[in-house]
Amino acid sequence: MIRTRLMATAMLFNENDLLMMKRSPTRTLNPGMWAAVGGHLEPEELNDPQQACLREVFEETGLRETDITDLRLQYILIRQNQLEIRQQYIYTAHTLRRDVLQTEEGTLHWIPREQVLQRDIPFIYHKLLEHYFASGPADHIWVGIAGSKERNIPTVHWTIMVDPMKL
């Protein structure tokens, strides 16, 4: 049986630096790898991924909504992981301060943009960062679907989300 998992994540920037978490080696998902802050939507957040994102940011960094500017949904990632379809809402924002809490989930670091892709990052997040750094902020939402190209090489297929009734 295929199950679903919904997640919300924030790519938080301060000047030219991206806040990244080096995940604890004891974590079940991607132990020891570098990731953004975020997590799973709670049942009461299913229709409000932005609220889930803000909750996760506060839990993992101590940053409140008032410490963040320009929060916007920039990406929706969809991928299959064994018998689970994962849908992840990726928000971008800027922070007004750099001081953050440390939690048991991992350690937080401000990484200069030019050094971000040198980290050990999960495949789909690495592809998202490559796309964002090449495309920059957009006025629309990008949808990325994990798949493959010729010879079963893993990739992410990008498309712009549009309302077809407004074309």
Please describe the topology of this protein.
Layout: E1 3-14, E2 17-23, E3 34-35, E4 37-40, H1 49-61, E5 68-81, E6 84-95, E7 106-112, H2 113-116, H3 123-135, E8 141-149, E9 153-161
Parallel strand pairs: 1-6, 5-8
Antiparallel strand pairs: 1-2, 1-4, 2-3, 2-7, 5-6, 8-9
Describe this structure in a few short sentences.
By secondary structure, the protein is of the alpha+beta class.
Task: Give short descriptive properties of this protein.
9-stranded mixed β-sheet, alpha+beta, 167 residues
Describe this structure in words.
With 167 residues, the chain is an alpha+beta fold. 18% of the residues lie in helices and 46% in strands. The protein has three helices and nine strands; from the N terminus they run E-E-E-E-H-E-E-E-H-H-E-E. The chain has helices spanning 49-61, 113-116, 123-135, and strands spanning 3-14, 17-23, 34-35, 37-40, 68-81, 84-95, 106-112, 141-149, 153-161. Strands 1, 2, 3, 4, 5, 6, 7, 8 and 9 form a nine-stranded mixed β-sheet that branches. The longest helix is centred in the N-terminal third of the chain and has 13 residues, at 49-61. The protein is globular, with a radius of gyration of 16 Å. The mean pLDDT is 93.
Give the % helix: 10-25%
Q: Give the integer mean of the pLDDT values.
A: 93
Task: Give the ordered list of helices and strands.
Answer: EEEEHEEEHHEE
What's the N-to-C terminus distance? 37 Å
By DSSP, the count of extended strands is 9
Main pleated sheet? 9 strands, mixed
Spans with pLDDT under 50 lasting ≥5 residues? Answer: none
